[in-house]
Specification:
Strands 1-2-8-7-3-6-5-4 form an 8-stranded mixed β-sheet. The chain is about 30% helix and about 30% strand. With about 160 residues, it is an alpha/beta fold. The chain is globular. It is built from 5 helices and 8 strands, in the order E-E-H-E-H-E-E-H-H-E-E-E-H.
């Protein structure tokens, strides 16, 4: 059961499948320009959540970890909006961030999912949805959603509605 607090949502999942389903539900609600930040330790479920998010958004290719490429770009059949999935773990400097073309990625015709966003926090837009994934036990994860800005408060309320009614 979620802990209710305005602008935040706290959920415990009991399997990778449940974590992915939450990502799928959120993915159905994304609009062009949305920015999702996934923070958490290695193995916390960031990529599992992202894969679900991509399915819900309608990506024509499955989302997988962008660790080695840093950036994966996904299309969907219904329009020309792109979904970018970035792994920011190795990004440390202005030059690193510039090298991935962050300014273009954060355009009005794209949705962006950042893994390890704390690595590039100074370069993130001030408005975004921040999700911290914590490891509780082998299969249990704690997901804490924090809305930063009106759009993300609305997104979180929509997500809460389709998740819990």
């Amino acid at each position: 059961m979620p802990i209710l607090k305005e602008g935040e949502l706290d959920i415990i999942t009991h399997s990778a499948e449940q974590t992915a389903r939450l990502g799928t539900r959120l993915g159905t609600l994304l609009l062009p320009g949305d920015v999702i930040c996934l923070s958490g330790d290695m193995g916390a479920g960031k990529t599992v959540f992202s894969a679900g998010l991509g399915r819900g958004w309608g990506a024509t290719t499955p989302m997988s970890s962008p660790t080695f490429n840093l950036v994966h770009q996904h299309a969907r059949a219904k329009d020309d909006v792109l979904l970018y999935h970035l792994d920011c773990y190795r990004l440390k400097t202005d030059e690193d961030v510039e090298s991935i073309g962050l300014e273009e990625i954060l355009g009005p015709r794209s949705c962006v999912v950042f893994e390890w966003p704390e690595q590039i926090e100074p370069w993130l837009p001030p408005e975004h949805l921040w999700i911290n994934l914590g490891i509780m036990e082998a299969l249990r994860r704690n997901l804490v959603f924090k809305a930063n800005g009106k759009r993300y408060e609305h997104l979180l309320n929509e997500f809460r509605g389709i998740t819990y009614g």
